[in-house]
Design brief:
399 residues, alpha/beta, 5-stranded mixed sheet, globular
Length: 399
């Protein structure tokens, strides 16, 4: 199957500026394309992972990815999908985060023999003369049109700063600069980047009289339309120091039934014939698809050895009822209690008779979750797990 059809079949494509032209260049040509990554944290997260899967698919078909680190745009902050202004970051923090991004990206795409390019928009954005930039490019942007973009409309009630208002112009200039330097003709981004991408396509046409193209990706969302990748500890990070391989594995092992097939398509290289068979599974059998998903995604992010460890740990905790030769007690947590704190859960699961006893157990290191000691009273339960009280009392918690 050709590349465009592969991306469409697996559910990546949300919007395209020129569908037939993009279909042709993806299937028949070899181009430079870019995806931007603002360095707002010291690790990439699972949302970035989806875009890197697309970069990998593209590279495997001979296209050259440009991973554009937002050393310059991060200083402004993208208002897309925000109801508040992003926290201002120092150049030192941005550079530190960008360095980590580089290391993580090497797991998914090859930079050997110029198969991919790493660029940083700080190299040109921080050198611009403001007055000269306004004279050269300001007339190419309509304020009326910019204010119709979702990225800005969503911020108008809370107060859109002039700082953030510049973000679209800066991203459009990035596309123009990458077109000048590398001949880059395609920008890819999340569905929420549509307005910014169109601005870049339009700027290249106005300034160079050439066609450029944009393609947006469906966001990784839960069945309720919320962005996927939120855990009790925050985002689902690709860094093992922020989200352990076991936690990463368990997130996908416990994913909602309605999301598992979509995630297999977007976040793994499992053949579509296998995924289509998995889509026929019903009831408890859907857990086979979840186990495959959790293993494949963890293997891509953390390596095969860590994926095997995570799978073995999960099996020993949840699938083998051989603790001391007895069946481990279970407690099914109702959906309306997902997010319950550990103190309340200990009482619900009959592991403590009162909040006082529950707090004492926590303070005396008497409670372990999935083999790790938990002492925080506000620890919340958002996934299936194993609780151990003392040395001999176990209880499986199922969502």
């Amino acid at each position: 199957m050709k590349l465009y059809e592969t991306l469409a079949e697996r559910g990546y494509i949300a919007q395209v500026t020129h569908e037939e032209e993009v279909r042709h260049i993806l299937n028949e040509e070899k181009i430079h394309f870019y995806i931007g990554f603002d360095a707002t944290a010291d690790s990439l997260h699972v949302g970035h992972f989806l875009t890197m899967m697309v970069m990998s698919h593209m590279q495997n078909h001979g296209h050259i990815p440009i991973a554009l680190l937002g050393g310059g745009t991060t200083m402004v902050g993208d208002p897309s999908g925000r109801t508040d202004m992003r926290q201002m970051m120092t150049p030192e923090t941005i550079n530190h985060n960008a360095h980590i991004f580089k290391e993580q990206m090497h797991r998914f795409i090859s930079f050997e023999n110029n198969k991919a390019i790493m660029a940083n928009n700080a190299d040109w954005l921080t050198k611009l003369n403001y007055v000269q930039f306004l004279r050269e490019y300001g007339a190419n942007f309509s304020v009326n049109r910019m204010l119709t973009a979702d990225a800005y409309k969503n911020r108008m009630e809370q107060g859109l700063t002039f700082l953030e208002f510049n973000y679209m112009i800066m991203q459009a200039y990035d596309f123009l600069e990458l077109n000048n330097i590398f001949g880059c003709t395609l920008q890819i981004g999340g569905r929420d980047q549509w307005s910014n991408i169109i601005a870049g396509v339009d700027l290249i046409r106005r300034k160079k009289g050439k066609e450029a193209y944009g393609l947006t990706l469906n966001l990784l969302e839960t069945s309720t339309g919320e962005k996927m990748g939120k855990t009790a500890k925050g985002a689902l990070w690709l860094s093992a120091n922020k989200t352990t391989p076991y936690e990463f594995y368990q997130y996908f092992r416990n994913i909602d039934d309605t999301s598992v097939i979509n995630c297999l398509k977007l976040l793994t290289f499992v053949e579509m014939s296998v995924i289509n068979e998995m889509a026929k599974l019903k009831g408890q059998d859907i857990n086979n698809a979840k186990t495959l998903l959790a293993y494949e995604v963890t293997k891509l992010v953390h390596g095969e050895e860590e994926a095997e460890k995570a799978r073995t740990t999960a099996q020993s905790l949840f699938e083998n009822n051989d603790q001391a030769g007895e069946t481990i007690p279970t407690y099914n947590l109702p959906k309306n209690k997902i997010g319950i704190d550990i103190v309340s859960l200990l009482i619900e699961a009959n592991l403590a008779k009162s909040k006082t006893e529950a707090r004492r157990l926590l303070s005396q290191n008497g409670i372990k979750i999935n083999g790790e000691i938990v002492t925080e009273e506000n620890f919340t339960i958002t996934e299936s797990l194993m609780i151990q009280k003392g040395k001999k009392t176990f209880c499986k918690i199922y969502l």
